[in-house]
Amino acid sequence: MNQNLRNMEYAVRGAIVIRADELAAEGKKILYTNIGNPHSVGQKPLTWPRQVSALVDLPADVGVDHPQAASLFPADAIARAREMKGALGGGTGAYSHSKGIRSFRDDVAAFIASRDGIPADPERIFLTNGASTGIGSILTTVMAGGKDGCMIPIPQYPIYSATLAMLNARQVGYALSEGAGWSASLASLESSLASAKAAGTNVKAFVLINPGNPTGQVLDPSAIEDVCRFCDKHGLVLLADEVQVPPPPARAR
């Protein structure tokens, strides 16, 4: 593996971004790619979700019930906004259930069941304000002391190392093999876990980032199954970040 990659610090914010901000303040044109914002490189926002969001946020009399709404918004966006406003009890801007609106969790459960063919319980689904909030909540719950640790891939997305440092918990890195398409073998996982335990770390969780960030790899189903079995064997909480399973190969006709 490239030692520079193993030793690098992947910083979403840091010295490079600070310098970029300074140059931008001087009038230089800066193309920011540190936070994965597709709009900054020219991608247009998706129209339909913005239309629905606008109609949900607007008061009904100037939104879904406005006389000219049908001429400004497509019918399906208006219908979806009405449905969402009903689930919200009128509109946005107020507290909701700590798990998220039940109707929205029902939609998520239905999607999971349709995609995976496995029933999903909306009462076991929690909606968060972005992935970072969910990650922080789970790690805060799981990491209880200075000797608790979490296995994270190296290279990794820095929210994990930063959150573990903030919680005074231990980072247990497992190396991704560049030569093997940025995958991790069961042998390397066992080795990382054993080394951490020998150092007195109480390893309680495992982070799987797929597609990889910043490596970009997509693990095949067998590799994901290996990780699941590894976590089950050692009683580790599995944090699955952006899980994506490649479609099965097409069958010959």
Q: What is the structure about, briefly put?
A:
The chain is α/β, with parallel strands linked by helices. The protein has helices at residues 3-7, 15-25, 47-57, 69-72, 75-88, 102-116, 131-142, 159-166, 186-198, 221-234; strands at 148-154, 170-175, 202-209, 237-241.
Describe the structure.
The protein has 10 helices and 4 strands. With 253 residues, it is of the alpha/beta class. Helix 3 packs across helix 5 and helix 7 (131-142) runs parallel beside helix 8 (159-166). It has helices at residues 3-7, 15-25, 47-57, 69-72, 75-88, 102-116, 131-142, 159-166, 186-198, 221-234; strands at 148-154, 170-175, 202-209, 237-241. Strands 2-1-3-4 form a 4-stranded parallel β-sheet, with helices on both faces. The protein starts with a helix and ends in a 12-residue tail after the last strand. Helices cover 42% and strands 10% of the residues. Keywords: Aminotransferase, Pyridoxal phosphate, Transferase. Homodimer. Belongs to the class-I pyridoxal-phosphate-dependent aminotransferase family. Alanine aminotransferase subfamily.
Question: What brief labels describe this structure?
Answer:
253 residues, alpha/beta, 4-stranded parallel β-sheet, 10 helices, 42% helix, globular, disordered C terminus, ALAT1/2-like, aminotransferase, Aminotransferase class I/classII large domain-containing protein
Map the helices and strands.
Blueprint: H1 3-7, H2 15-25, H3 47-57, H4 69-72, H5 75-88, H6 102-116, H7 131-142, E1 148-154, H8 159-166, E2 170-175, H9 186-198, E3 202-209, H10 221-234, E4 237-241
Parallel strand pairs: 1-2, 1-3, 3-4
Helix pairs in contact: 3-5, 7-8
